[in-house]
Hints:
Helices cover 62% and strands 8% of the residues. With 283 residues, it is of the alpha/beta class.
Amino acid sequence: MPETKQLGKDEAIGEYFIMGIVVILGIWILFLFYNFVREVYDSIHSYFFDRIPVSRFAVRLRKLSLADSAVLQNTFLFYNQLTQRQQLFFNHRVVIFLEKYRIHGRDISITKEMALTISGTYVMLTFGFRDYLSKSFERIVVYPSVYPSSVSDDYHKGEFNPATKSVVFSWEDFRDGHEIENDNLNLGIHEFTHVLHFDSMRFQHANARLFRKHFNNILVLLTQDDYKQKIEEAALFRDYAKTNEFEFLAVLVEHFFESPVQLKTQLPELYFSVARLLNCERS
Length: 283
């Protein structure tokens, strides 16, 4: 009789184990099906409407303290233009960003305000993205001011290094980019735009495809002599934008966030191209 009881117990354990495996497989299959349906829906939606719907839903909405939210309010005009619901979702993404990416200080201590400003910059830039967390970097390195390049004798204000999966900032220049909101110089926006640009060439999710499509539209505009003349006459962009197509886009996105009305009025084709590649409007 004891052997029979033991056998029954072993059979029950085996059944529970099999049931657990079946449940896990079922969840995995549902997850794959959900992602497939989402990709198909995004592709159809972006084809007909040239944008991607962004869900402001999270199973568990992560929260910031009132003090942390106040930092965002005091730093980002963009944040203050959001609805209350959108601000809660912005906060959620900031929390997720800070959990995913490591922020290191070199000869400088990283304060909570610094971390929030850095993460808020990235979240602002990608607020129109569904797949907003980049796989192209893992850490952020912050220096007090300009720092020596690892590959030359030059001093840099910031850089994105795909080889080391890092984004590097001079805090002095990063901070100035937010304290002066209308000079179209924002180091955080500039370097994180390089990250998104790099992602668009690596990945095939809907936001990457949309980014790539409208960046190519910008390149077409830049091949037209009459439009290049229009850009010259507008005199909006600093000379650094002429370095190459990557720097042009980064400078253009700085203008999109800091002087959207001016950009939309004088160079509407570029404004709407950026609005579509970021899946985001500015006012």
